[in-house]
Amino acid sequence: MKIALLNDYLRRSQTSADWSKLAASCDITVFDRAIPQEEAARTLAPFDIICTLRERMPISRELIAQLPNLKMIAITGLYNRTLDVAAATERGIVVSFTELRGAYRKATCELTWGLILSVARHIPFEANKMRQGGWQNTAGFTLAGRTLGLLGLGRQGRYMVPVAKAFGMDVIAWSQNLTAENAAQYGVKRVEKDELFRSSDVLTVHLVLGERSRGMVSARELALMKPTAILVNAARGPIIDEIALIAALRECRIAGAGLDVFAQEPLPDDSPLRTLPNVVLTPHQGHNVHEFFQVAYSDVVENITAFLQGKPMRILTADQNSSALHG
Length: 327
Fold this sequence. Notes:
The chain is of the alpha/beta class. It has two domains: 138 residues, NAD(P)-binding Rossmann-like Domain (Rossmann fold, 3-Layer(aba) Sandwich); 179 residues, Rossmann fold, CATH 3.40.50.720. The strands form two sheets. The chain has a seven-stranded parallel beta sheet with strand order 8-7-6-9-10-11-12, sandwiched between helices. β6, α8 and β7 form a beta-alpha-beta unit. α6 crosses α8.
C-alpha cells in the first residue's frame, strides 16, 4: 500500500506518532509542501491511502475521479469542508476522522488572545524595534473596561468568555441562531448583528465557514466598527471580505487586525496584508500545537491499521460531515 501524508509542512507526522508497523508493510510519502491543484491528480494517482492535514488540501469529486487507486482518505479532525465525502463514499472509499480531545481544543482560543494582545499593545512592532535599538514608539490600549464582541458563540467563542471576564471586559455576541437565553448561560449579552459591530472594541470571529457565513464581514459591517476597534480572525479567512478589510486597514477606518487565516492559503507573498503596519499575521497557527499533532496522527495510524486489517474505525459519513458543518 502506498500512503501519502499531505501538507505536513513541519514534518510532524513522523515524530508525533509511531508509524513503524505501517512502514514495515507500506510505502509512506510525506509531502511537506502544498500540492498545486493542477498537479494534484498526477501526483496522487499512485496512492492507495491519503491523509489530509486539516483542510489544507481540497479533495473534490473531480479529483477523486482521477485517483484510480484510492481506497481510503484519513482526515485529521472531526469533519472536513474541503473534502467531498459523498463522492468518496460512492466510490467505496473509506473516510476516517480523528477525535477531538485533550488540551489542544483550546489552542485556537489561546492564539486568538495572543493576537488580541499583539495588536492592542503593538507587541510585534515594538519587539522588532527593540532589536534595532529603538525604544517606545507606540502607545497601546488596555482591555479592562472595554467590550469584546464575539461573532459566534460556539465552542471556541465560549472559551473566550472567562478570559475576557478575567481581563475585566464586557462580552456581547451575535450569530444567526444565537438566542438571548443561550448567551446568558455563558455570561454573555446577545445583541443584534449591527450592534455587535458598532459596540465592540475588540471583535473576534468564531463561525464555521459555510454558505451563510462566507463574506459575512463585508465592507458594510466594517464601516459600522469604531475607528479605535480591532478585528481578530482565527476561524476561516473567507468569512471576512479580504479586499474590504485591506481597504479599511489602509484608510485606518479600524485601528488594526490580527489574522491567522486568509482567503488563500498559504498567503501569497505579494498579498497587501503583508505590508500593512496595523496588522499582525500568523500562518494559520490556531491548531498548530504539539498536542494536536500527537492526537491527530496517533488516531490516523490507528485508523489506517484498522482499515488494513479489514476493520475500519472512526468512519465519517457524508451526513455526519454535513451535520458538523451546519450544526
